[in-house]
Amino acid sequence: MRFVAGKVAVFRWMLPLAIAMALMGGIYLAVRWSAQQSDAVAVKRQQHLVELVISKMQGSIAHDQESVTVWDDAVRKVSQEWDPRWVDSNLGSWMNSYFRHDGAFVISPDRKPLYAFLAGQTNEQEAFSEIGPEAMPLIAKLQERLAAGDEGGTSEQVLSIGESDLVRIGGRPAIISVKPIVSDTGDIVQEPGREYLHLAARFLDGDFLTHLGDDYGFEDLRFSVLPELGRQRSYAPIVSSSRETIGYFSWLPFRPGADVMKATAPVLLVAGALLFALTSALSVVLRRRSRRLQESQAELDHLARHDPLTGLANRASFNRLLARVVATSTIDQANALLYLDLDRFKQVNDTLRHPVGDRLMVEVAKRLKETAAGAAISRIGGDEFTIIVARTRQDEVEKLCDALIAAIRRPFEIDGQPILIGLSIGVAVATGNDADPIEITRKADIALYHAKSAGRNRYAVFGPHMDELIRTKRDLEQDLRAALDAGNQLEVFYQPVYSAQSHEISSLEALIRWRHPSKGPIAPDAFVPLAETAGLIDRLGAFVLKEACSTAREFPGLDIAVNVSAVELAQRHYAAQVLSLLRQFGIEPSRLELEITETALLDEAGVCEKNITALREFGVKFALDDFGTGFSSFGRLQRLEVDRIKIDRSFVHAFDRPGGGVAVVQSIVGIAHAKGLRITAEGVETEEQSEILRKLGCDELQGFHLSRPMSKNSLRQLLGADKAQGTSSSSRS
Question: How far is CA 304 from CA 121, 228, 707, in A?
């Protein structure tokens, strides 16, 4: 009996142990399997990431090349007036210092290397001999495509055709890319297939692996010809366009599952129950994280399609919806697009500040949805909306416009304060499915312009007569092109900038003027924005900069400032063009100051900032023009370095108003001086304004009270009189 009782006791003790061990074993196997699956997914993602980075690097190198190969100056310097120093500065070592390319070569139409640069190689012939065997097939293929007039793959972003491939050079993996050196204006005639070529090389080992590992968390990233560095490593093949594997990237893979196993194995050995609880808790946490991730993804998807403030559809959604409505229309179905713009909203926003403006915008959106129930409403800009009304008639659209205007004209009440704004609407009606959505939007925008011109708080339906506005704009654009070609209508005027303390001329600002042969003087406000939208701003800016450099050479004692459009500054080759002109005229970079607007601060691609940084390294100075009138802040100034701030004339003109601009200017001067920036006040029109600005601490003054903009001949007379009198005070009478 004692024996039987002993066996029962052992059984009772062993059974829980067996159950616990079985539970521990099951949990261990489940966790191990999950860890292996997680590791496999992580390894796969890292392999895909390596392939994606290499693919994007190929496109990036070709894009970098286009910043210097699609350029008239480059065509002239390599084919007409060979200039080795210029080629090295702009097509060679520049590509290494600015874009980190390891090699840059200029190839003649006969496939001979005219210039060769390869990091670590001083002999040009040996440099090209290293890369030539791999590059020649690409060069030959590109020349065949050029001769055949092939333009496949070009777009607004890709300006010229090219060839690139993954190769192995001297046992090292590399990307090589070949691009033609072509005219950006089309003014230089080139024989197809006989263009000079630019060859770029970027090795995929060395510092590339270091940066790739640091940026994306690859541990011990290496390159090997064969996958023979051990089974514990992950491999990603480097495959050329001909499907040849030229080598492998290998790394110690990120294995989150293995890390989890190492952390939990001791716990499993100590207490199965605790591990089970921990696993359960971990499962709950993972589910919650997954749910939050799904919610975040859904929120991101919603934000990608909607305006975050009002919840209405955004511009991208509007474009897609309008295209879909037009495409699905029957031949006799009429659709209407309403283009809405709020009247006096900017004044409300400026007076009551942005928080009130945001709340007002939300209330406006609510009224639009209530009034145009069932229609597709979008917010496409600050105070601009669109409404798509499908399957409608013009009389119904007109009734809706009246209702919308009446709804917005009713006073809004925010924090007990009534706010009155208005609404102007432009309407375009299109029938059938062959209408162009872009043309419909254009017509609605033109109609909106007419509604605002007619007195606001009204609507206008697009009619053929409104196209006259477009024709006028096109005629002005053609006239501007002709003026740039003729060279005798455009002239650069110069407005002196005076020292606030000594009253002497300290520098000059170059200003473009256009005297049309039949229309007379045309204001820069009319033709400079047109040049930006018509793709002429590069030519116009180059004209002003060239004239300014000529004047700076004539008056070596004065610095000169030139206004630069954000569109110009966003061109990748802009810094190289400026430096080339300075060298051509023998001007020290420190004598040139480029005046930029606050739009340059909003460049999301960062090209403006790169150009500014590159030019500042050579000594070119920068000024922020019209400070305080847009979106700028001193926080942005901490990121984008400038040397001088130009206070907008609106603050100066507000001096004589109660609570005017004196306090604002005083604050700007104090903060700017604390940061080491110089201050120039624009729009000085009276001696009283001049004296106030001097006492506030402004460094320079500029305005009609001191001197109006003048031609170069008048400038010569002014500076000649100043030298004769030893002072510039007489010029300000």
Answer: 48, 45, 51
Q: Is residue 202 a contact partner of residue 57, using CB atoms and an 8 Å limit?
A: yes
Tell me the pLDDT tens digit for each residue of 517-568: 999 999 888 888 888 878 899 999 999 999 999 999 999 989 999 999 888 9
Provide the residue count of the chain: 733
Query: Which residues, including other chains, have CB under 8 Å from residue 454's CB and lie 6 or more apart?
Result: 460
CA distance 384 to 445: 11
Cβ atoms of 158 and 180 within 8 Å: the answer is: no
Q: What is the mean pLDDT of the segment spanning 369-389? A: 92
For residue 727, give every residue at least 6 positions away whose Cβ sits within 8 Å of its Cβ, in sequence order, or none: 503, 504
From start to end of 333-398, where are the E strands? 334-343, 376-379, 384-389
Of the candidates 731, 648, 644, 642, the one whose C-alpha atom is nearest the C-alpha of residue 682 is 648
Contact of 636 with 673, CB cutoff 8 Å = no
The answer to whether the CB of 447 falls within 8 A of the CB of 339 is yes
Identify the DSSP state of 182.
B
Rounded CA gap, 84 and 101, in Å?
A: 19
Share of the chain above pLDDT 70, in %: 84
Strands 113-118 and 245-252: unpaired
**Predicted structure pTM score:** 0.45
Question: How far is Cα 35 from Cα 263, in angstroms, rounded to an integer?
Answer: 12
The residue ranges of DSSP E strands in 519-632, in sequence order, are 520-522, 559-563, 592-596, 621-627
Rounded CA-CA distance 87/68 in Å is: 10
Q: In what order do the strands lie in the sheet with 163-169?
A: 113-118, 103-107, 197-203, 172-180, 163-169
